[in-house]
Amino acid sequence: MSPIMDIFKTGRWSDSARIEDQRLQRLRDMLPTFCLKSRAENTLTQYRYAFNAFCRWCGAFIPSISALPAADEQVALYIISIAKDYKSSSKIQLAIHSISWAHQLAGLKDPCESALVKLTKEGAIGETSKPVVKKEPITPDHLKLLVQRYKSNNLYNMRTLCMCLLGFAGFLRFSELANIRLMDVSFNDVCMKINIVKSKTDVFKEGHELCIARTHGDTCPVHTLEEYILLLGVEVNSSDYLFRSLTFCKNANVYKVRRDNRPLSYTRARKIVLHAFGEIGLDKSKFGLHSLRSGGATAAAAVGINDRLFKKHGRWRSEKAKDGYVRESIQDKLFVTQNLGI
Q1: Which residues contact 145 (CB under 8 A, 6 or more apart)?
Q2: Can you give the pTM of this predicted structure?
Q3: Lower CB density within 10 Å: C or N end of the chain?
Q4: Is 209 helix (H, G, I), strand (E, B) or coil?
């Protein structure tokens, strides 16, 4: 049994005797499942991996030390071990979150709340932190260049163009973009609506209806997507993924969608999009798939989009997360001192 499930054998769980009333006992048996569902699937996977690594580290010593409950000093030593071995502040943060989460689940005292652990964490992060090099955002002018180069009856080119226009207009994360199916998209005279079934911040799996307006220009994402879907030649309301692998048919000199219904991988999509950026003269080392999401956010911030609409459109849960995607122009940065009255 994995250490994650062993959590439900200790602490509050080990002290509980079985309940005589079978109806209550059946409900109690479901508690671990519901507790685990308090975190998003991806977060749970990361916590499981990180906490298992901590358990292995504790078991490597003679005699082995307890991972649950863990003493604050051993957690502090583990943080130093991670800092020395990986030199990664993100691994340190993940380790602390997973250890804290495991102790909370078990109803045990959280060693990560100790001043010793907090001070060690600050020191280790200071030791391992590196300057963050953020990718540049794509701009509307970049998209216009992409349209000039890629808009055609070529399925491969139109797939690239649609990924860029949708990613920008919808502030889409790659995981959201890749998982759009044809049946998730609907069109009307004013806009298109995309049902975002699964999103990083959608812990309760409520879904999100993303509305993208018809702009009636060359860079209109709605019209471009309609053209792309016609070229796909597939059932409009099917469960097929919107962005799939293509096959080049030499005899007909055209691209066709592959039969296997799988979305593009992150690696493949990144290669395709970066190639397109290079084709319009951009330095590919300064851009990435996130440049589309940050580009849309930056363009929205520049025209003063209402903050509530801004966050809802981009599916951000916090101001900090949202602001991290916006790149201010030099005019915005100068605005503060220009208005100090000096």
Answers
A1: 280, 281
A2: 0.68
A3: C
A4: strand
